[in-house]
Amino acid sequence: MSFFNKILETIKGNEDFSDLKSSTFRDVLNGNILSKNFIKKQYGLFLLIAVLTFFYVDNRYYCEKQVSKEVKLKKELQDVKFESLTISAELTKLSRRTYVIDYIEAKGLNLKESPYAPVVIEEPDPVKDEEVKKQKEAHKAATVKVKSDSTHIEE
């Protein structure tokens, strides 16, 4: 606390401050206060404060602009999600078997449903084919072994 008291005493004892202290409200309105020695010495400080205030206000407007842009984009994203969900539901409805059959009948097309299940044709895989052959051979060997064991017990 004594540090602040020393600073206050130094300012109060300064003749520039006593000149400022004797100014009136009229001096402030006229602008004569800017010609006082104490104020002239502080022009750099006032300029620094003005620049920092400008940057503070600019930063505030920039942040508000970014927040409003974020809110707008979130709302747009939500709208797109809902639209996607609606389109997906519509596609699911249109691709149902009963809907397709009714649509074909309504258009008068002479198409019938196939009585056979669809078959998936796969590209041959040599490694997989070898594994299947080995499994079949193992199955045959196991079958022969079981048959020979059961016939041997019956005799």
Question: What does this protein look like?
Answer:
- With 155 residues, the chain is mainly α.
- The protein has a domain at 125-155.
- The chain is 79% helix and 0% strand.
- The chain is built from 7 helices and no strands.
- It has helices at residues 2-13, 15-21, 25-30, 37-41, 43-94, 97-107, 126-154.
- The longest helix has 52 residues, at 43-94.
- The chain is elongated.
- The N and C termini lie far apart (116 Å).
Number of strands: 0
How many whole angstroms does the radius of gyration measure? 46 Å
**Helix/strand structural class:** mainly alpha
* Mean pLDDT metric: 85
Shape: elongated
Q: Roughly how much helix do the residues carry, as a percent range?
A: over 70%
Q: Which regions are unreliable across 5 or more consecutive residues at pLDDT < 50?
A: none
Characterize the largest beta sheet: strand count, sense, and whether it forms a barrel. none
Give the SSE order as H and E letters: HHHHHHH
What amount of the residues lies in strands? Answer: under 5%
| Count of discrete alpha- or pi-helical segments spanning 4 or more residues | 7
First-to-last CA distance: 116 Å
List key phrases describing it:
7 helices, 155 residues, mainly alpha, 0% strand
What's this model, at a glance?
79% of the residues lie in helices and 0% in strands.
List the helices and strands and how they pair.
Blueprint: H1 2-13, H2 15-21, H3 25-30, H4 37-41, H5 43-94, H6 97-107, H7 126-154
